[in-house]
Each structure stands twice: as C-alpha cells, then as structure tokens.
Amino acid sequence: MMMRAHYAIMCKAFSRNTAYRSEVWLRIFGNISIVFIQISIWKALLGTGTLKGIDIGAMITYSLINMSVSMILMSKVIYVVDDKLKTGNITSDLLKPISYPLLLFFDQLGNVVFQIIFTVVPTIIISWLLFGLSFPREPYAIAAFVASLLLALLISFFLGYLIALVSFWFLTTFALDWMITALITVFSGSFLPLWFFSAEWKFIADMLPFQFLGFVPAAIYMEKMDGSEIIWMMGKGSMWVLLLWCATKLLWWRAIKRLEIQGG
Amino acid sequence: MNIRLFSYFIKLIIKSRMEYRGAFMIGAVGQILGYAANYLVIWLLLQNFDTINGWNWTEIAFLYSLNILTYAIGASFTYSPMVGLDQTIINGDFDKYLTKPLSPFTYYLASLFNIGYIAHIVISVFVLLWSISQVDMGWTAVKIIYLFLAVISGSFLQAAALVVIGSLSFTFLRVQYLFSILFKIKEFIAYPISIYGTLLQLILTWIIPLAMINYYPSLYLFDESILTNKLLGIVALVIGPLAFYLSYKLWMRGANKYQGAGG
C-alpha cells in the first residue's frame, strides 16, 4: 500500500514535467554546449599529452559523466520546501499519511526519472557520437557506479533539504543556495577533477560530502578506483547520508514545533 | 523619460530594498562566495597548467571579470524586466506601462531596476583591479579611457542580449528557456575564444558577438601593437551601443504590436 503511494507521487512528478517537454531539445543543446566548452579547454590544456595519467580522451568521458550526474542531483529541493514553508502550504502535505521527507524524495525522483529519459540519455548519445565516450569494462565498476549514483541522489537530496530547513530560521534561502552551489562548484570536482587538486585542497575536498556529487561517480565509472578504495568511499558516502539524515530529522522536529507555535 | 526621472525611480528602488538591509547583505555575501568559487576553480586549474592558450591566471582573471562586471551593469537595468516580461504580459499587467505619458521602454526598465547585482560588481571590480595591478599592460591615458569605454560598451551588449530575448515575449509568450540557453552560450566567453575552432570563433565575433564583450577588449589592452587587436578592439566599442539600439527598436516594435492586439 505504502509503496504504491510512493510510486504514485513519483508518477505525478514525472507527468508534471512532461508539460515542459518542448524545452527538452533546448536543454540538451545547452548541455552539449557546456560539454563542448569543457572539452575545448581540456584540448587546449592537455593537447596530445597527459597529466597524472589523464589524457584528453579520459577528460571527455569525465566531463560527460559529470554533466550527466549534475542533471540528476536533487539539491534544488531547497526551493520546493522553502516555498511550502513560507506559504504555509506545507500543512496539506503534513496531513497526508506519509512521511514528509519520503514524499519529497519520491516527488524529486519523478523529476530525476524524467531528466534521465529525456535529457541525460539523449545528451550522452549525441555527445558520444560527437566527441566519443569510453565505457567501463569490469562488471564491479558498473555495479559500483550505480551505487555511487544512488549516494549522489541521497546526499544531494539531504543537503538541499537541510539547507531548506536551516533557512526556515534565517529566511535566507537564496543566499544559502548560492553558498552551497559555490561549494559544489569547487569540491564536487565536476569541472576540475580532484586528481588535479593540490594536497591541501584535496584534503578539504575529502573532508566534505561534495565529491560524491560528481568526482566519485566519474572516477568509479572510469575505473580509476580499485576495489578497496571503492568500498572505503561507499562507506564514507553512506556515513554522510546517515549524518545528513539525522541532522534533517533534528531540524525538522524543531521546525514543526515552531510552525505549530506560530499557528501555521 | 529623462535621466532625472529615471534616476529618481532607481533611488526609490534602492531605498525600498534597504528596508531589509540584513537579508540584502546576506544575499550579497552568498553571491560573492558563489563567484569566488568560480575564480577558485580556474585558479586551481592553472596551478596545474600555468596557461590556457598562452593566457595566464591574471589574464584569465581579467577576461573573466570583464564579463561579470559588464553583465552585472547591463543586467541591473534589464534582467528583471526582461525575464519577467512574459509573465507580466500573461497576467495582463503590461498595460500599466503603456498607459503612462512616458516611453514604455524606459518606464518599464526604470520601475524594475535591480540593485541586487551590487555583489557581482564588488567582486568583479575587486578582481579586475587586482589583475590590472599584476599584469604589466603599459597603461597610457588612451588605454585607461579605452577600458572605461569597453566596460560601457560591453554592458550595453549584455543588456541588448536580454532585451532581444525579452522582446520575443510579445510574440511567443513563453521565452524562459531562451534565457537559460543564453546563459549557457555565454559560458563560451568565460575563457579565451582562441581555444575553439575557427568557425566558432567567427560566430562569436560576428554573428553572436559575445567575444566583443571581453575577449577583444582584453587583446587590445594586452597588446595593441597588433593591427587586428587594434581594429577589433575599436569595433568592440561601437558594437555594444549599436546592438542595444537595435534591441530597443525590436522591443518597441513588439510593444506596439501588443497594443494593436488590444491586450
């Protein structure tokens, strides 16, 4: 029964997206432009050479995987929660016999499924034909890649949700979103891989959860991580999910109390 | 609408925004951090490679800042009115801009001036001045005037791009995705366009002349002894105001058509 409700929420979000399907081609065009720009930069920088064992072919795959991962991140959930908290529309969601974060997650998942089918897959196919793309050979890498995508989904979701709850107190969603986007820009490695970071910057990136939103899935896909490294990363990513989940739980509980006091 | 009335509108908008000074400041800090992150990524990149096609970190920082600064100035005047135009038309709120004894274009722009770009301006001017202090450009009075004019022309060009897409709202009603395409295309000039193929360079110079915003002015300032740098550098000063004038004409045509349709 519960699973059916979640599935229905997902389908509803999916069909909401189909209203904008005419924009899909333009989105694909935009994505390919960005990948093209990144490839041009790497061509200018690397030429026919390599740096730390990375050549232009590897960077093409890296850029494309990162573009695709960025399309399925859920950190923009911040605006959904923010809107509902400020308008008070959240009350109707709270009346539903379903946990609020789960409702939100499946709603976002509907968006993600839409993005994958209508944006990510076409972007990958067209870019593959235009620029080339390499595929993982080892089955374990494919399995680990899928798992790392799941971690990326969960971590981006909880980050966005956490920021939304924080902004409930400070009413600064916009500024917090800029800050979190700034951190993702640098530390997810989505443009500049963590391989090219100096020791100090690599250390900071390792302390933060953002590398799971770009670098880690791409590195696994490209088979640049061995078995033990993958297991260590998966464990670390799961710890982040747990930590962020607890933090949102705590903040949610406080926010709801405040909402009741204010009379909703 | 004269300049005095225009600046009076802007003064009122600034005053009303400053009612919420705290939220405004936090927003500005967030934006500055956002841009600092973009600079940081390029800096980290150039720790590995020293130059991109012969452009070192300070030169890239100059190029990048010129783009942000001109965008911030242009967008202060045009972003909110142009991005909001399709919704304003759909809601039927556009009529009030046509029923005043003022030019609808200037009145619409003035009433939606956005002070929020001050953060962009602060960080880009800061990095611009820093990069100028690092690169030896052999400053002359001509060059100083050139930089000043290049910023004005670039701002006009950035504004023109927004106005052109905004004016399409009159015909197509929904144009939001065209704005997101514009912002993606503008990423092309975040780096020296010499990294792209010849065809794309020609497009970015003559068809969608975004390279006139920052690339050619930078080339002129770094080395004006090369003839093509000099010529294109001068073209860059003309093309901004020209593009803005044409976009204004296009917008007014759209606005007149809207009137004719009876709203």
UniProtKB/TrEMBL annotation, chain A:
Name of the protein: ABC transporter permease
Keyword Glycosyltransferase: no
Domain of life: Bacteria
Pfam family, one: ABC2_membrane_6
Annotated keywords: Membrane, Transmembrane, Transmembrane helix
Residues passing through the membrane, by range: 24-46, 58-79, 112-133, 140-172, 178-196, 203-222, 234-252
TrEMBL record, chain B:
Stored InterPro entries: ABC-2_transporter-like
Transmembrane segments: 20-42, 62-85, 105-132, 144-168, 188-211, 231-248
Keywords: Membrane, Transmembrane, Transmembrane helix
UniProt protein name: ABC transporter permease
